[in-house]
Amino acid sequence: MNKKLTGLSIAIVLNLLLLWTGAAHAQCKLGVPAIKVGVQGAASGPHSDYGRQIEMGSTMAAEEINAAGGILGCKVEIRFMDDENRAATGVRNARLLVTDWGAHFLVGTDSSGVAMAIGPVLAELKRIQFFTHAATHRLTEELVAQKGIREIVRVSVPVYQDAIIAALIFKDRKDVRRWATIGADYEYGYVSWNLFKETLKKYRPDVEFVGEAWAPFLTLDFAPHISAVMAQKPDAIFATPWAGEAVQLLRQALIQGVFDNVQVWWQAMGGSVDVLEGIAGEVQKDRFKGKLWATARYIHNWPDTPENKAFIERFTKRWKRYPNYSAETTYSAFFVMKAAVEKAGSLDTAKVVDALKGMQIRNPGGVRTFRAEDQQFIYNVPAGRPMMDPKYPIPVLGDLKIFQAQDYYRHPPFTPVSIAK
Amino acid sequence: MTTPRASAATVIALVAIVAALFVLPWIAGRYPIYLVMHILILAVFSLGFNLLFGYTGLLSFGQAGFFAVGAYGCAKILLVVPNLVLGIAGGVALAGIAALLLGALSVRHTRIYFSMLTLAFGMVIYSIAWKWRDFTGGDDGLVGIPRAALEIPGLLSISVSAIERYYYVVVVIALVAIFVMHRLVHSPLGLALQAIRDSETRAAFAGLAVRKYRLVAFTIAGVYAGLAGALLPPLENTVTPPIAHWTTSAEPVLATLLGGIHSFAGPIVGSVLFFVIKDVIVRFTEYWLIWFGVIVVALVMGFPEGVMSVFTRRRRSARRQPAGTASQST
Amino acid sequence: MENIVFQGCVGLSLAMYLWLISAGLTIIFGVLRIVNFAHGSLFMVGAYLAYTFYGQIALPFWLAILLSVAGTGVLGLIMERGFLKRIYGVDEAYQLLLTFGFILILDDAVKMIWGGVFKIPPMPEFLDGAWMIVGRPFPIYNVFVIAVGVLVAIVLWFVFEKTWWGRIVRATAADREMASAIGVRVPRVFSGVFVAGAMLAGLGGAIGTPVRVAAPGIGTAMIIQAFIITVIGGLGNLKGAFVSSLIVGVLSAYGTLFFPVFELFFIFIIMVVVLLVRPQGLFAR
Fold first, then answer.
1. Nearest 5 degrees, angle CA B168-CA B174-CA B178?
2. What is the Cα–Cα distance from C161 to C31, expressed in whole angstroms?
3. I need a labelling partner for B273 at 20 to 30 A (CA). Which of A101, A297, A307, B49 fits?
4. Which residues of chain C neighbour A230 with C-beta distances below 8 Å?
5. Chain C from 7 to 66: CB within 8 A of any A CB
6. CB A124 within 8 A of CB A148
7. For the segment A78-90, what is each residue's pLDDT rounded down to a tens digit?
8. Which residues in C lie closer than 8 A to residue A277 (C-beta atoms)?
9. Strand, coil or helix: what is A378?
């Protein structure tokens, strides 16, 4: 071929390429090579599935956002780190992600303890974290409402879900008067039980709280706790151990004949996918005799919207597993972030926080509404009884009791909740 | 362990390192500063540990208990009186007292019983930190601890709330601690401890009050652990119970073994390795535990004397010292 | 009152489980003088293997347990022959460090092989149910654990007191130089004992699967309990480990019944007291 023509065509191609990449760059209206989002969860130890779910949710969200053109034309880049469920590691990772890697936003955190440690550091680093699992009320009631740390935004339902909704459901059960708890022996367990008792007493002054047993983190054997509590002959059990511990607790309770002797067993985070998978065999055989109740921070079979169904389909196709609540909350957090950045037109932390005001956004889990007083996104999650549904290979929560979150979320002014046992 | 007069190369290297430490905030970002502070804190922690282990032959699995006493002590003080000097001094003092008391009980035993006892004491402190919610904040810990100013009423008042400023506090304290430890181990005390380590019976026959010396070593190790712990709350603004757990006690053990228990600089080098290795690994994979484990196993199998042994061996062969000197391991 | 009796029975099954997990640690220390930190990890591997053999491959329960125990034994053999053996001459501390390294490796290895979600197989039919004791349902599973614990105790007693191999092991434990001098193949004994200890850990993990999950990190949770039992009973003292398991198991159960508030503490205080007052353990000869 003619030398000149070859040269010219090469030049044209090169220029087109340059133009294209340059144009792709120029498309990012925020002037950064990419929007960096640091994600943290517990990826080691016995609760490592929750961190993994956070990772899966964030990866899928980033992929979908990028496929649709990014945020204001900017690509989203994520980096996941294991916080080992330890405050020291979580804080260190947060610093690494922001100061070393250049994260614009942070997402995640399973443990309430880690969240409480990261909160004040966010103010120092001037970065927003969208919290997607940690349930402690103190994160928003103390650090946001009282201390004014606006870099904290919560996208998942807090401990109000575990505690208050139970009181609302069972207040009408006249056959349930004697409650006992097998509780997680740390703040989450104490607060849930206290909030539950406080709320229930308002509606039912006749109830009695007859027994309690506290199981530290990583308890393998609940037999003594179960038998200690059953010795008081309760009508109902309020149980807060979660993840693998919930499955162990339920198995060990089954063989002690608990479900022949109580009317209700409330397993706070029993609607979590890993727990439902773990008790699937028993649910199939109706071993819980319809007495097991649970909730979560999102359940895969509700709401029955095309959006949720599509989300489940994409998620199961991508990861071969059902999305846990921490996956949905993390996934939704990314879209919240996207909406806020788009509205603010900037990555500046203060502007993005302002842009959240009044936000209402549609996610797989339903409609989330922002509440400025404590910077939480309020949305409804029902409670129900684990049962099989032919549409799903794993148990779902059925016989759903749906309450409006506005009705059971606590409001400012926040009075302190007793953390005593 | 004898100290030959430091060679010119060693002196230059030391000066260069110290200079680098002081210059770091000017040339590096926040994260490296932050990492170096953690390395220095672990180094102080490990130096104390190794006084007890490498020099005195007592393997303690409960040092995190004193680390926690120092940390919680400093935190409680800072929450009431935001004075950094008071906070750190208070934390150190409390840790020292705790070490003296628990040490008096522990040094009656040796070897595995000593190790188990220290493990138990450490976990008792952990349990107290976890359960005594009213005082320690329970599993939530203490939060909002201020990075208080360096104040001596009438003399000086320096704000260190900027992390770069606090970095210098940590560097200076760590260097002083390292210097003091160096003097200690090369003093008659250091020799006595090594004699006790090498042969308890012989040392006793030579007139050394074995138990007393062990207690001294234990207390100093506790003081160092407390100092390391006290430097933490102003840095992180929180303290939580896991810092008292036996898995935290394992950190100075690992660091020292990585760097070398029979060299003074071993714990320091090991601390650097500990953080750098983990930092590098987590950038590449979420499976950091297995790589860390593989490195530990490889080091134990290949270099049981730790990384520093590579240097000390070379020097020893260069000097053609007779084999079987006191500095050889058992 | 029936509740006290019932709680005592629960305590008994708790105790037998503690015994299962500390027996292996005890014999390894007694003979090799090694504190095997990785004992908890072997327990964890036993649990995972049982999940796979029983839950995934659906072998009969007894066969799954047997294979899990064997598998853990093999792992123990690799650890001892491949690694520990080479550093016997070096300071004890290195052996501790090595076993600690194994914990780190195994915790991630199980995650890589089985994934991070906890695993639990279905409940074996023959264990599902309860016998009435003092008018309350006492799980058959817990009876099973008591039976296994007692059986293991009897077998170990028999092996160590009445067999030729047991005598050799005891001799090696008492004085390894002397034993070697009279012709005992000490390295073989060490391997054998380590493998036996590993198998006991695996048994503890495998027996647990019907009601406990297999998850990364469960070994670390359990190793402390095992240490405490072993120390209280006297390091290397099997009878002591058995009795101290009984004490700790039953006391924990009653603690949960009467003092739900304090737990954690309790067990470490006992350990401290024993170590201070009688460090050889409560049952040392």
1. 145
2. 15
3. A101
4. 136
5. 7, 10-11, 13-14, 17
6. no
7. 999 999 888 888 9
8. 117
9. strand
Q: Which of A204, A150, A217 is nearest to A176 (CA)?
A: A204
What superfamily would CATH give domain A160-296+382-408?
Response regulator (3.40.50.2300)
Q: Structural domain boundaries of chain A? A: 35-157+303-378, 160-296+382-408
Query: Based on the structure, what is the number of domains in chain B?
Result: 1
pLDDT of residue C217: 84
Q: What is the mean pLDDT of residues A92-100?
A: 90
Q: Please tell me if residue A92 touches chain B, with a CB cutoff of 8 Å.
A: yes
Q: Which of A81, A99, A186 has its CB closest to that of B139? A: A186
Quick check: A255 and C218 CB within 8 A? no
The shortest C-alpha distance from A344 to chain C (Å) reads: 38
CB contact under 8 A, C257 and A247: no
List all chains that touch chain B, counting a touch as 3 or more CB pairs closer than 8 Å.
A, C
Query: For residue B306, what are the CA distances in angstroms to A339, B296, C93, C112?
Result: 53, 10, 12, 29
Q: Residue C62: count other Cβ atoms within 10 Å of its Cβ.
A: 11
> Does residue B28 form part of some domain?
yes
* B301 in contact with C, Cβ within 8 Å: yes
Residue B280 has pLDDT above 60, yes or no: yes
* Cβ burial A385-399 (10 Å sphere, 16+ → b, else e): bbbbeeeeebbbbee
Confidence band for B5, pLDDT divided at 50, 70 and 90: low
Interchain pair C108, B293: CB under 8 A: yes
Interchain CB distance below 8 Å, C218 and A46? yes
Mean pLDDT of A12-25: 53
Enter the ipTM.
Answer: 0.91
Residue with more model confidence, A259 or C273: A259
Among B38, B133, B286, the residue with its CB nearest the CB of A82 is B286
B249 pLDDT above the threshold of 90 = yes
8 Å CB contact of C94 and B304: yes
pLDDT at A20 over 70: no
Residues of chain C neighbouring A254 (CB-CB closer than 8 A): 123
B304 and C279 within 8 Å at the Cβ level: the answer is no
Domain housing B219: 8-246
Rounded mean pLDDT of chain A? 92
Q: Given an 8 Å threshold on Cβ–Cβ distance, is C139 in contact with A44? A: no
Q: How far is A354 from chain B (nearest CA, A)?
A: 25
Alpha carbon of A316: minimum distance to chain B alpha carbons (Å): 22
Return d(Cα C96, Cα B252) in angstroms, integer.
14
Give the separation between CA A62 and CA B43, rounded to whole angstroms: 40
For residue A393, give the nearest of A342, A322, A332, A293 by alpha carbon: A322
Over residues B42-68, the mean pLDDT reads: 94
Question: Residue B310's pLDDT is what?
Answer: 59
Note the pTM of the prediction, 2 decimals. 0.89
Share above pLDDT 70 across residues of chain A, in percent, rounded to a whole number: 94
- Report if residue B276 sits inside a domain: no
Is it the case that residue B318 has pLDDT exceeding 80? Answer: no
Which residue of B30, B236, B286 is in closest CB contact with A99?
B30
Assign a CATH topology to domain A35-157+303-378: Rossmann fold (3.40.50)
Q: Is B281 on the interface with C (CB under 8 A)?
A: no
Residues of chain C with pLDDT under 50: none
pLDDT in the model for residue B309? 63
The rounded Cα B73 to chain-centroid distance in angstroms is 17
Please state, in angstroms and rounded to a whole number, the distance separating the CA atoms of residues A291 and C265: 35
User: Is residue A364 less than 8 Å (CB to CB) from chain B?
Assistant: no
> Cβ separation of A46 and C117 shorter than 8 Å?
no
pLDDT at A85: 87
Residue B112 resides in a domain: yes
**pLDDT tens-digit map of C200-213:** 999 999 999 999 99
Has residue B327 been placed in a domain? no
How do A35-41 and A105-108 pair as beta strands?
A: parallel
pLDDT band at B330 (very low <50, low <70, confident <90, very high): very low
